[in-house]
Amino acid sequence: MMVFSVLYSFLTWWDAIDRRDEFSGDVIVISIATCVAFWLLWNAMKSKKALASLPPGPVDLPIVGYLPFLLGEDLHKKFTELAEVYGPVYKLWLGKKLFVVVNSPSLAKEVVREQDMTFADRDPPIAAWISSSGGNDIAWSAYGPDWKKMRKVFVSNVLSNASLDASYALRKQAVNMAIRYVYKNIGKPVDLGELAFATNANAIMSILWGGTLEGEEGTKLVADFRKSVLELMVLLGRPNISDYFPLLARLDLQGIGRQTKKVMSRIRKFLDTVIEKGSNLTEVNSFGFKKTERKKDFLQILLELKDRKDDSMSVTDIQLKGILMVSLARVA
């Protein structure tokens, strides 16, 4: 605005000096061009100063950045080639998003271990944002009190040595079931991949919620859940143009947002069923005794934390489902 104000004052002054000067038109044009050139130069210098602290990187194209050069397979080879030219740390503009690539084991260790708090926050893609209910799970939540709380609940109740020792019998039972299955099918082809998945699923789900999903209904629900999670994994890994050009996000040109919402509706329905069954197991009867007397599983612990409204370790319904999603993703 200051440039245009000065230009307007100059034109007014010049017109007052000599309205009939035959060269005034040319001078005005030259003056405007000069002012515009200085303005563009000033903005360019300002942009360079803002980007001066960034690492080097390849020259990118207007609007699309370096995206066209990353099409195809063997991206790791492409990144290695760029590292040989620009060093172990370099920048890439992909659309309107700036990416900094670290291509060195020592620097990767520095980022994920030594400076992990600095780099803890994530910029989730649209599919991840939808599937995590706006970044409300361990994988995509911003670093802060909520993330620390969810991580503490997950690690202390699922990944701790005490939890693993307590679940030894359940894991042993799942392995024995797999062995019996192989023994019964001697002389017949056995899909080891499917068997390994079923064994892993039985062990993990027994740890998470014990026997809340049993019988034919439980088997069908688990099978549908696995299918939905696999679809979600594909959507999370699929390149989405809206992630690189946020202005296009509302259009959802590839339909990834709509597909993710459909998949998540099925997953949330499954989680609601599990939570409902788990809640029934923790209810008390008219005499004040629990309906089911058994060792607490992970789901029961989460439900109790959800009911502790004023506790620093209490979790919301969205966080509860987010923690379960992270736990169950290992099954698929």
TrEMBL record:
This is Cytochrome P450. Pfam families: p450. The lineage of its organism: Eukaryota, Viridiplantae, Streptophyta, Embryophyta, Tracheophyta. It comes from the Eukaryota. Keywords: Membrane, Transmembrane, Transmembrane helix. Coiled coil: none annotated. The keyword Lyase does not apply. The chain crosses the membrane at residues 23-42. InterPro entries: Cyt_P450 (IPR001128), Cyt_P450_E_grp-I (IPR002401), Cyt_P450_sf (IPR036396). One of its GO terms (molecular function) is iron ion binding.
